[in-house]
Amino acid sequence: MSPETAPLRAGLIGLGMMGRHHARVLRRLAGVELVGVADPMGDPHSAAQGVPRFDTVEQLIDLGIDYCVVAAPTAFHEKLGLTLANAGVHALVEKPLAQDVASSRKVAEAFEAAGLVGAVGHIERYNPALQQLRARLEDGQLGSVYQVVTRRQGPFPNRISDVGVVKDLATHDIDLTAWVTGQAYRSVSARTAYKSGRDFEDLVAVVGQLADGTVTNHLVNWLSPMKERVTIVTGERGCLIADTLNVDLTFHNNAEMMTQWEALSNFRGVSEGDMIRYAISKPEPLQTEHEAFRDAVLGKDSDIVTMRQGLVNVVVAQAMLDSASEGVTVSVES
């Protein structure tokens, strides 16, 4: 952006735990001016810091904003998204896109029909460990990919009350798995549990299959005192392990071995080989996400999670819930 170009005018809806981080990044984002925030519940974390605060999205729109970040509870995403689309305002909506498939489709189609940039805040895509993992898969480091395993566990976040662990957390794993492999989901088989007395599930275990036959496994819960965010991709040449909490990426190489056991002489096995922990640059994922969305609004080529992709993630999440409810494997429509 040249010095004479006016900065994009940005607004923010929602000043909770995630909203305060969006406000922090927006205030320092080059080429962008945070001109207003909105939250009818006030500003519990003092995120506004002198920026005008309003109670409604309409008041924010009246400021003349170019784009808006929606960090409100999921139950409000549909109404807020449709209001912004009708006003001609680009939007980055925190995941999930909306509370269900029908609502997500309405929002995605509204932004597409209006010719607006609409994105969903699947922040894991911007984690440096996963970005490096994806690049290495594209370069063929593992050869054929056999399996993707994710573990996303930790204590219950008090900020979540309107969705369960599938739509709040497992949607991260749905999105990152399809993104790093470049393959869509074709089926899922899931089981859920309700252990904490809440209306929504707090544990899910999922086995899935991607379009190319890759097997996936996802373990997600809000019941563990141990916080874990791990993605393991296994292929013919070894496995890559991304720890997105610590932003680490390691590679375990297959060391093929010859066996002297006659009964196994035809088995092509592997043994432990070298392990490499890569040194990678570690910019803040939220900063990278905002930079990508800003560039998309400016018409530049940018890697954002589109609302159409966000809709697909909600479709897969709903398939997981349907599978757990019915006790069957559910096919995922493309």
Care to describe what's here?
- The protein is an alpha/beta fold and 334 residues long.
- 31% of the residues lie in helices and 30% in strands.
- The strands form two sheets. Strands 14-13-12-11-7-10-9-8-15 form a nine-stranded mixed beta sheet.
- Helix 3 (77-86) packs parallel to helix 4 (101-114), helix 4 packs antiparallel against helix 8 and helix 5 packs parallel to helix 6.
Descriptive key words:
alpha/beta, 6-stranded parallel beta sheet, Dihydrodipicolinate Reductase, domain 2, 9-stranded mixed beta sheet, 30% strand, 334 residues
In short:
The protein is α/β, with parallel strands linked by helices. The chain has helices spanning 17-28, 57-61, 77-86, 101-114, 128-138, 165-181, 285-297, 307-326, and strands at residues 8-13, 32-38, 53-54, 67-70, 90-94, 118-121, 145-155, 185-193, 203-210, 215-221, 223-235, 238-243, 248-256, 270-277, 330-331.
How would you summarize the topology of this molecule?
Blueprint: E1 8-13, H1 17-28, E2 32-38, E3 53-54, H2 57-61, E4 67-70, H3 77-86, E5 90-94, H4 101-114, E6 118-121, H5 128-138, E7 145-155, H6 165-181, E8 185-193, E9 203-210, E10 215-221, E11 223-235, E12 238-243, E13 248-256, E14 270-277, H7 285-297, H8 307-326, E15 330-331
Parallel strand pairs: 1-2, 1-4, 2-3, 4-5, 5-6, 7-10
Antiparallel strand pairs: 7-11, 8-9, 8-15, 9-10, 11-12, 12-13, 13-14
Helix pairs in contact: 3-4, 4-8, 5-6, 6-8
